[in-house]
Structures
1.
Amino acid sequence: MPTPRPLLWHCAPHTRAKHELLRRYLEAWFPILLQGPRARECVTYVEGFAGPGIYEAGEPGSPIVALQVFLRQRRLLDAGKKTNVVLIEERADRLQRLQKEINDATAPYGNVPDGMRIEYRNDRCADALLSALHAVGAMKTPIFAFLDSWGGPDIPLDVARAIASAPSSEVLVTFGTRFLMQFGKAEAHQASGDQAFGGPSWRKVWDLPSSKKKSFLVSTYRESLKAAGFRYVLSFEMLGDGGHDLHLVYGTTNPLGLQKMKEAMWKVDPIRGVNYRDPRDPDQLSLELSFDPDTGPLRRAILEELSKGERTLAQLRDFTLLETVYRPPQATIVVKDLLGRGLVEREPARGQLSSDKVIRLAPKKPPETEPLF
Ligand SMILES: C[S@@+](CC[C@H](N)C(=O)[O-])C[C@H]1O[C@@H](n2cnc3c(N)ncnc32)[C@H](O)[C@@H]1O
């Protein structure tokens, strides 16, 4: 993505969709972690590329979106729970503006609640993020790290690895492939690519045909985040005006987090031409997240999974959650459809289609031959 020089810039449709996703996800994340049977005393929200907190036409920046979620649920803070908010921005003018925007946003709530600590750093994310987290004692708390750079390889994998070592922690990374494809052969950029991926595996991109480069880089980055300690990694491409190459890669150590991120993603209204694409769908269909979404890519993914052997419906639902952009209930709908078309069969053949039912590919019928007489 081109990097704007002015203090503020235009809020593109894909940015609005990203903020909507963030808001919806944090609305689930914040109360789940701070109340309920396994509630924590403190959580930490950190942004490594915080921005000025406002866009050209007055739309709120991501730190304000997050803060408003926390402030709307301030009863949790008033009940003694604690939240750290750590905001890092390398440009002093943007950080200064962010502080003003945060002050304005907290004023209607009677300023920053006692349980909330906001820490600002005018620094580079790679240099400051971990020390800032240590300074607020965040490494013993669940951390949600939004690492929303312009999409270059700006986040050393060691930073992600350290975040993964904190309990129930998560990252949401903006990942673009264009920079590495254009400039990655320069020595300095190769070094930062190696740092971001935790090694040189990504450099195989040069040996691939153009059509395979993008999905290779995204899937290699997914594997890097897994190796860094995020057991569940979800990635999707947001398609906005002008076909920006903008992937969001979410890593978590917690399956409930993955489920909530999927739910948030499917609830984001398709905003003027912004939709998602599953980077591993070979047909690269983009998804309007509508009431009646196109489940063609999921149908293909489930058939491919079944070509490796039979699976229970529960296994197919897990596969859908962990390996595709779809949600488990959509797996059940697709399996019913495949049963109806005779492409798969189930065992036992009758009764309710519950999670323990075994699903397998139906044997291929021999081609119908013309009767001789
Ligand atoms: C894509 S914008 C972030 C926008 C913000 N997250 C939002 O959604 O409102 C990236 C921001 O990171 C800042 N930035 C760029 N490189 C940085 C770095 N290495 N460390 C910290 N901040 C950086 C830029 O000045 C810019 O404000």
2.
Amino acid sequence: MPKTQKRDLEEYVNVGHSEAENHLRTQNAQLEQTADVESADAARKLTDFLWFNVFGFAYHYLKSRFGRRHKYQFYPRGDDTGIFKMPIGTTTTNIALLSDWASDTPESDRIGAVVASHKPDYSIHLGDIYFVGAPSEVHDNFISPKASWPRGKLGSLALSGNHEMYSNGDAFFKVLLPTMGVREGDNVREQKAGFFCLENEYWRVIGLDTGYTSVERPFVEIISPPDCHLRREQVRWLRQQLHLDNPEDRRGIVFLSHHPPFSAFRKGYPKPARQLRQFFGNFLRPVLWIWGHEHRMVGYKRREVAGLPIEGRCIGHGGMPVEIDNPRVDNESIIFYDQRERIKLRRIGVGYNGFAWLSFQNEILEIEYRDIEDKVVVSEKWKIEMASGILTKEEAT
Ligand SMILES: [Fe+2]
């Protein structure tokens, strides 16, 4: 049982009224208490998610699938541009990235507790709330007093995966986003769209929405498969607010998305990369791109998609049974792949869940890929050359 602990009076200083702010405070206080506790309130088992449990999924899917997609939300909204400020670059800022995490299992609780024990400044979910991103599922994973989402000290943000859209995105936009946001000074600014930019004077972490366009109407998607393209509102935002082609702005770029621009295992979705390429104009430079969707942890060699040089990382091993099968094609393109077997579930080998821990300090970005036992499986160091805007890899272990 979690030890009981009173809140500090300090926590009530500057209490605002926004939903995001109150969630940030509540969740931080809870996680102080539960950081060392496994399985806070897991409602599911990992075996619920094995591929042959198809009836469970089909039931949820069909129940939620019909109806209209939630209206698309986008920036700017009033004077809110969707660009959030991180602390200045000289201080170390930590961001925990979790993807495909929201399964409400002992594993996701454990990952939540491990992340919370490191007290991240920000935590970001890269999408997929299981099974269908329904209000109750959002509640159980992110909002309920027993939810194990590890809220960052300065805030949390979320991207949509395909699963949120199986219920038309209603709970993602209406239930989850109002609890997400970033502290800036005395205020917490809510996340009001499925995309965002979090930046300081050295780096820009740009969350891309590929979830909304990853799902079409049932049956229509058979004829016209969804391509995860960036919708025109998001394209306008990228062009008019971020100005990625500005040669004076040489900050490092880290894209986040749910869907992979490429994969050595399954289908990739190159369309967003093709769209993004245009925004760089003549100031084309390598970017880091971290995604989920596939339930595994993989680092790829630099690859160009439509001319955009991408340092790609897949971290979809947040909370689902982790796949450890061999790549279907292209073994050569992989730098690291955590293929260790952790357990067998119904005779299927399942790997280690985990998350990515990003530490930004000045020009340096260090990334640790940690597993469910908090072991650093891989770490790497990136540097942005502020004179040229070129991203280089310093070292990896
Ligand atoms: Fe997904």
